[in-house]
């Protein structure tokens, strides 16, 4: 497996480079326009403050001589009274439009990015190897898709461009200050290292808190989903209060991290304010002294102090943004790590399609282990050889944990063999195109899954090329049509999580109808009738027998009564084929199969010996 970079190890430059390449570079025009708007808004903030100087000198200092506006126009007292307020409103209007334009563009871009990340994450998840999906709780995926992607957006939205706006305001204001009085501006500069130090300190704290909060968000999603999945067990064991306490613990842990992060954010602002006010005090002292010397006029002083306060404001925003950014970047690191995992089960570059027609399945000396082999640990499958000719039905039986389900998982390449090969018509399935391989296989499982959609859509699942008549024909063949038409909306009744509840037998028959419609030459049946009552079982069994006609069928059955008509039975024990043959021969051999058959007749199932 390609090991992704550990979330913390991706350097910042590489991370930003990737965000740019993958998400921003496609929207260059919008981004540049937003940046320009932000720049205009930032510069105009400084201009508005710069207007303080002519305003104070022209309007409040009587007999101060003509006032110069933007160093270009000379105004007398009467003109100043009319033009300075008008100029302020005009500049403020342009600034408002620039600021609103920037926000609108950035919101669109930001939400576009979240959507994009969410779709890419889902695409990576749904294509991931079964082994990986099984190794992680689905809550973790949900949390990444829902929370982490939004943190990245927040960092981007309130980050990149607001950074530009406040950063530019800061720069413009500082330049203006240098223009008014460079010595005073130098005093201001002394505050910068102190602010940088504060930013660093709080940034580190926020990042740590963000990592903790993300991990706990994952734990929370997992706990919620687990509780919903296991609600019956929780109720029957009266564990509601205990589960509530467990979830409360996760919530409290998450809260601790979130509060730490929020506090770091909340303290960073006032801490840099403290620096800003210290600088204001220093400036006051210096400027007051200058004014007493007659070097600085009151208008310049007012503008300077106004700018200083504005610089403090912008600095505070930048401080806040730094923490939002560090959260977003932490999330981005996690997201990229998740996106970068390459599935191991991939199509070979030379993969071919299987020619149409009947299919013969062979497991050729197959060995398999879920985890890399360790000394003294036996593989899950050990040199297994199975042959299914077109039209044949082959059954797998044996004690629990023998490897039956594992064999079924190997055929559609949910897992790849670690030794030997699975062949369809003589071709190693690893040399076949993956979608083509799966097109050749229909799978009916013990507990068929229904989507939250109509019955018709569930039967057709994903097939757009089938008519209602074909869906109904499949349902009839699966003995499902009669019960479907009896449902409130017939084929348009919603099934699945939020739809009508169907019985186990009804769900089975919908799954069988799905398999009829797929009409694949290879059929995998996993305990298809084990959970049913006698009447349902008879209906399902009859439907299955029709489905098996002409296909290479590999079936697992615990109840031997369902496999006695199989062409061949393989008895698996501890990952090895210990017996094989027809039912009668195996009973006559008096080995494991015969023993299992005897046990089952004691359990009330029809005695195999008498049936045989
Ligand atoms: N995803 C997995 N990861 C690791 N080990 C697994 C996994 N699935 C199954 N196993 C192990 O592989 C062995 C074979 O399991 P398998 O489910 O194939 O047996 P089975 O014959 O189908 O059992 P049962 O009749 O109880 O369903 C067991 O020891 C099981 O613990």
From TrEMBL:
Domain ABC transporter: 361-599
Location, primary (coarse class): membrane
Membrane topology: Multi-pass membrane protein
Boundaries of every ABC transmembrane type-1 domain copy: 32-327
Alphabetized SUPFAM superfamilies for the sequence: ABC transporter transmembrane region (SSF90123), P-loop containing nucleoside triphosphate hydrolases (SSF52540)
UniProt-recorded name of the protein: ABC transporter ATP-binding protein/permease
Record InterPro entries: AAA+_ATPase, ABC1_TM_dom, ABC1_TM_sf, ABC_transporter-like_ATP-bd, ABC_transporter-like_CS, P-loop_NTPase, Type_1_exporter
């Amino acid at each position: 497996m390609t090991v992704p970079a550990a979330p913390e190890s991706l350097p910042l430059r590489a991370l930003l480079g990737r965000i740019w390449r993958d998400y921003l570079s496609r929207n260059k025009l919008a981004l540049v326009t937003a940046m320009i708007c932000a720049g205009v808004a930032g510069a105009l903030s400084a201009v508005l403050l710069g207007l303080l100087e002519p305003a104070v000198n022209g309007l409040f200092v009587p007999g101060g001589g003509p006032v110069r506006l933007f160093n270009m126009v000379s105004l007398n007292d009467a003109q100043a009274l009319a033009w300075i307020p008008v100029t302020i409103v005009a500049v403020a209007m342009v600034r408002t439009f620039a600021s609103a334009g920037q926000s609108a563009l950035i919101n669109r871009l930001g939400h576009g990015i979240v959507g994009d990340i969410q779709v890419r994450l889902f695409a990576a998840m749904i294509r991931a190897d079964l082994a990986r999906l099984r190794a992680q709780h689905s809550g973790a995926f949900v949390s990444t898709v829902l929370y982490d992607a939004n943190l990245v957006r927040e960092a981007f939205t309130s980050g990149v461009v607001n950074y530009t706006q406040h950063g530019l305001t800061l720069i413009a204001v500082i330049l203006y200050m240098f223009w008014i009085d460079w010595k005073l501006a130098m005093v201001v500069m002394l505050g910068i290292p102190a602010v940088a130090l504060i930013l660093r300190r709080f940034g580190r704290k926020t990042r740590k808190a963000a990592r903790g909060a993300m991990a706990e968000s994952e734990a929370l999603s997992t706990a919620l989903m687990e509780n919903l999945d296991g609600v019956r067990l929780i109720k029957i064991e009266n564990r509601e209060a205990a589960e509530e306490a467990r979830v409360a613990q996760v919530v409290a842990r998450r809260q601790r991290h979130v509060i730490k992060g929020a506090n770091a954010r909340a303290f960073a602002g006032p801490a840099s304010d403290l620096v800003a006010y210290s600088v204001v005090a220093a400036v006051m002292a210096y400027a007051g002294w200058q004014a007493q010397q007659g070097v600085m006029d009151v208008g310049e002083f007012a503008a300077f102090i106004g700018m200083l306060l504005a610089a403090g404001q912008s600095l505070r925003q930048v401080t806040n943004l730094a923490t939002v950014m560090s959260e977003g970047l932490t999330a981005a690191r996690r997201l990229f790590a998740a996106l970068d995992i390459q599935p191991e089960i991939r199509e070979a570059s030379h993969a071919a399609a299987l020619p149409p027609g009947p299919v013969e399945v062979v497991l050729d000396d197959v060995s398999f282990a879920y985890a890399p082999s360790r000394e003294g640990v036996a593989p899950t499958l050990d040199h297994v050889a199975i042959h299914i000719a077109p039209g044949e039905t082959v059954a797998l039986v044996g004690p629990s944990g023998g490897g039956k389900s594992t064999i079924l998982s190997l055929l559609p390449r949910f897992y790849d063999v670690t030794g030997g090969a699975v062949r369809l018509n003589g071709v190693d399935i690893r040399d076949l195109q993956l979608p083509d391989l799966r097109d050749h296989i229909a799978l009916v499982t013990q507990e068929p899954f229904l989507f939250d959609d109509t019955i018709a859509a569930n039967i057709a699942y994903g097939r757009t090329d089938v008519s209602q008549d074909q869906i109904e024909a499949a349902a009839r063949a699966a003995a499902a049509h009669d019960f479907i038409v009896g449902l409130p909306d017939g084929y348009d009744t919603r099934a699945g999580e939020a739809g009508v509840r169907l019985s186990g037998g009804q769900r089975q028959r919908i799954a069988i109808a799905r398999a009829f419609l797929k009409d694949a030459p290879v059929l995998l049946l996993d305990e298809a009738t084990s959970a049913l009552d006698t009447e349902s079982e008879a209906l399902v069994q009859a439907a299955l027998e029709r489905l098996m006609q002409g296909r290479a069928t590999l079936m697992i059955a615990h109840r031997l009564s369902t496999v006695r008509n199989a062409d061949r039975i393989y008895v698996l024990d501890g990952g090895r084929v210990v017996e094989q043959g027809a039912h009668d021969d195996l009973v006559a051999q008096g080995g494991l199969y015969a023993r299992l058959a005897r046990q089952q007749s004691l359990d009330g199932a029809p005695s195999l010996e008498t049936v045989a």
